[in-house]
Specification:
46% of the residues lie in helices and 1% in strands. The chain has 395 residues and is mainly alpha-helical. It has two domains: 148 residues, Cytochrome Bc1 Complex, Chain D, domain 2, CATH 1.10.760.10; 170 residues, Cytochrome c-like domain (Cytochrome Bc1 Complex, Chain D, domain 2, Orthogonal Bundle), CATH 1.10.760.10. Strands 1-2 form a two-stranded antiparallel sheet. The longest helix is centred in the first third of the chain and has 40 residues. The protein is globular, with a radius of gyration of 27 Å. The N terminus is likely disordered. Bound molecules: heme C (HEC) (2 copies). One heme C binds next to helix 4 and helix 5.
């Protein structure tokens, strides 16, 4: 009996001891996690200032350079109808929306676009496109309406021609009547071309209305601005850690700047020049050439602005060796809708994108003078945090 009692009581004591140990261990772990959270969740004044620069959302759009139809409701409606109109293409099978699909962030989910023939570049998403000043991965167009004429006429996209597109537009009473009411266009020498430019300006007016919804990041940023700690706590800890890296050590915000997470400028981040078909895609270098040759740029006949500053931006660009391999910094909003990534769609996931910054080829970049980037030393969990943050920029 006694032995039994002693045995039971020692078993009980052991159980108590074990419970106590477990409690101590759990408390220890919780303290470590909590101190980790406290350490990574607090943002310094400088960090808060940097975060606030990525908003508010939606942000104000700049002028739609040279488009006098921008912001006019009937032009936007007409432009929307034309955006989905396959008859604008050379073979009648492709509309803008064939590649810029609304459910895919106005991209197509493919590595490179399939137009009338095979393209070498990835289809860009069109959410928030009104915020840009240079269009295309290489900035080859200086206005949204010029960037609309290019796919209409490009042999690798819709492969249309001006007389056929004009013929089709004349059969659309709404479009043709609106065109005829604009006296400025009646005095232009080539009426077919004037009608197609008019339609492109309507499509551009529609695209400017594509503004995406606020995201988890925007709510967090607003909570920081309002100093509302409860609202700040809703944003995930992992995204907060990723944000800290983004605006801190990794210096991503140097290029992915402002509410759109793009400075609108051109940079080389060391992606290969070679295309799938073994040719070289020189990026911004060819974009400047395209701009200088483009009859539909802001320096041409169809420009609707008298703003000399806007025009000077287009006349003052000069190409140099440094432009080889540069691409316009993409916005980081809505990335969950627009995989695969980069100008050639060569990177499949956000995890893989972040790893390209870990393995940057410094040798190549230094030869080209890009001094902002250096290979990042990030642990797997830091990479995961950066990815969580990037995901929080999609609604
Ligand atoms: C065959 C697929 C395809 C079709 C059809 C197409 N696009 Fe695109 N779009 C692309 C590709 C690819 C790019 C990137 C082009 C480049 O960098 O040279 C692009 C780029 C753009 C851009 C620039 C985006 C940015 O962020 O700078 C705009 C604007 C645009 N397209 C509008 C249109 C409009 C409007 C139409 C219809 C008139 C259209 N696209 C038809 C594939 C397509
Ligand atoms: C020197 C300027 C610069 C810096 C710094 C920079 N980026 Fe980029 N980023 C670019 C450019 C330019 C591209 C497009 C390159 C291409 O298409 O080949 C790009 C592409 C991307 C893309 C793909 C977007 C898409 O739509 O295809 C993501 C995601 C991205 N960067 C995230 C980051 C992150 C995260 C960091 C920090 C670790 C960072 N970037 C630092 C300039 C920069």
């Amino acid at each position: 009996m006694t032995i039994n009692f002693r045995f039971v009581s020692s078993v009980r004591r052991f159980a108590c001891l074990r419970t106590a140990c477990v409690v101590v261990l759990v408390t220890c772990l919780a303290t470590v996690a909590a101190s980790d959270d406290v350490e990574t969740l607090a943002f310094t004044e400088t960090e808060i200032d940097r975060i606030l620069l990525h908003g508010p959302w939606p942000s104000e759009l700049p002028e739609d350079a040279g488009n006098e139809l921008s912001g006019i409701a009937w032009a936007e409606q007409l432009g929307e109808a034309l955006f989905f109109d396959k008859k604008l293409s050379g073979n009648g099978t492709l509309s803008c929306a064939s590649c810029h699909q609304p459910v895919n962030g106005f991209a197509d989910g493919l590595a490179v676009a399939h137009g009338v023939t095979q393209h070498v570049r990835n289809t860009q998403g069109l959410w928030n496109i009104g915020a840009q000043r240079w269009f295309g991965w290489d900035g080859g167009a200086d206005s949204l309406w010029a960037a609309t004429l290019r796919p209409l006429l490009s042999p690798v996209e819709m492969a249309g021609d001006i007389p056929s597109i004009a013929d089709w537009l004349r059969q659309k009473p709404v479009a043709y009547q609106a065109f005829n009411e604009h006296r400025r266009y009646q005095s232009l020498p080539n009426q077919d071309e004037a009608l197609v430019v008019f339609a492109a300006k309507c499509i551009a007016a529609y695209m400017r209305t594509l503004v995406s919804e606020p995201t988890a990041f925007d709510q967090f940023r607003q909570a920081l601005a309002d100093e509302d700690e409860e609202a700040q706590s809703i944003y995930s800890v992992s995204a907060k850690r990723g944000l800290k890296i983004f605006i801190g050590d990794a210096n991503c915000h140097a290029c992915h700047y402002g509410p759109h997470f793009s400075n609108g400028e051109f940079h080389d981040i060391g992606r290969p020049f070679f295309t799938g078909v073994g040719q070289v895609d020189p990026g911004r270098y060819s974009g400047i050439e395209r701009l200088q040759e483009d009859r539909f740029s802001l320096t041409g006949l169809y420009n609707g602005t008298k703003d000399q500053n806007e025009i000077r931006k287009s006349t003052s660009v000069r190409k140099g060796q440094v432009n080889f391999g540069q691409w316009r910094t993409p916005s980081l909003r809505n990335l969950l809708l627009t995989a695969p990534y980069m100008h050639d769609g060569s990177v499949l996931t956000l995890d893989a994108v972040v790893k390209t910054y870990v393995h940057i080829d410094l040798q190549r970049l230094h030869a080209k003078g890009e001094s902002i980037l250096r290979p990042l030393s990030l642990s797997d969990s830091q990479i995961a945090d950066l990815v969580s943050f990037l995901k929080s920029l999609s609604p």
